[in-house]
Amino acid sequence: MKMNIKPILISFILITFFYTASFSDTIISPWPMFGYNKEHTRHSPFSGAKKAELKWEFKTKKQINSSPCLDSNETIYIGSSDGYLYAINSDGTLKWKYKTGGKVDSSCCIVSDEAIYVGSQDNHLYAFCKDGSLKWKYKTSYLINSSPAVSMDGTIYIGSSDWYLYAINPDGTLKWKYLTGGEIISSPSIGSDGTIYVASKNGFLYALKEDKTLLWWFQTGSEIVSSLAIDEDNNAIYFGANDGSLYSIKLNGTLNWVYPIGCEIKSSPSIGGDGTIYIGSDNGHLYSINPDGTLLWEYETNGKITSSPAI
Known about the structure:
By secondary structure, this protein is mainly beta. The chain has strands at about 10-15, 55-60, 70, 75-80, 85-90, 95-100, 110, 115-120, 125-130, 135-140, 150, 155-160, 165-170, 175-180, 190, 195-200, 205-210, 215-220, 230, 235-240, 245-250, 255-260, 270, 275-280, 285-290, 295-300. The chain folds into two domains: about 1-190, Methylamine Dehydrogenase, Chain H (7 Propeller), CATH 2.130.10.10; about 225-310, Beta Barrel (Lipocalin), CATH 2.40.128.630. It contains no helices and 26 strands. Residues about 1-25 have low confidence and may be disordered.
C-alpha cells in the first residue's frame, strides 16, 4: 500500500509484552504472521503492555510500513522501505538482514522452524531459513505488497499487483494462480475448511477452494486495500473499503450488513473474543462495532489510521 509519507528515517519501537497464555496447536509463536493467525483476527491470547515503557529501539535506513512478526525464540522480523528484511533479537540487537531488490512493505509469515516467507516490491516472494539464508524466491509479474498466508498443508497464498492470487508450494514451485480483476494489495485469509478469501482493488471479494475453484464473489462499490478478518463463530468476514464502509459478509458470500463510516478505510479489522470488531479509518477515528453492525463506540485520534488494531 502506497502512502504519502516523507522519506525520513523511522525507528521500530518495541514495547514490553507480558505472555499469559500458552500456544495453541496452530499458533507456533507469539505473533507468526500479519493478522496473528490465518483468519487474521489480530486477537492474540497474550496480554499487552500495561504502560508504554520503552525497552529499546532499532533504526532502519528508511520508513517501515510492514508489521512485525515474532518467532518462538522471540526474534522479530520486519521489512523496511530500504529493501531489507531484518531479523532482530529480543534485546534489540541485529541478528541478520537480507537485501531484496525492492521495498519490503509485506509482513512475514513464519512456519515453525521451516521457513520465513515475505514479499518484496521487486516482484518476488522470498523464503528464508531462520539463519537468514535464502531457500528460494518466486517471481510474479509485478509488485508484491500483500502479506502471505500459509494453509495447513503448507501452501503459501499471496497476492500481487499483477492481479493474480498465487498458490505456491513449500518448495517454491507454482501450484496455481487465479486472475482477479485488479491489483491485490489486501492479504489473503484462510478459513478452517481451507477456503481462501482475498479482496482486490476492483472492489471484489473472492472465495476460492484449495484447488482454485471459485466458490463465490461479492462486489462492493470501490477499491479494497483493507485485509480481511474471519469470524467463523458469527459466520462473517469483515473488511473495509474505500467507499467508506465496513462490510460484514456471510461465509456463503451474501451480505450480512454494512456500517457506513464515511471515509476511506485502509486499516484492517480486528475481532475481539466477544465478536466485537475494531477498525480505523482515514477520518482519524477508531471504531468499535458490535457483531450485529451497530456502533459500540468510536475514539478520535489526531490523524489518519492506516495501521490495523491488535487485541
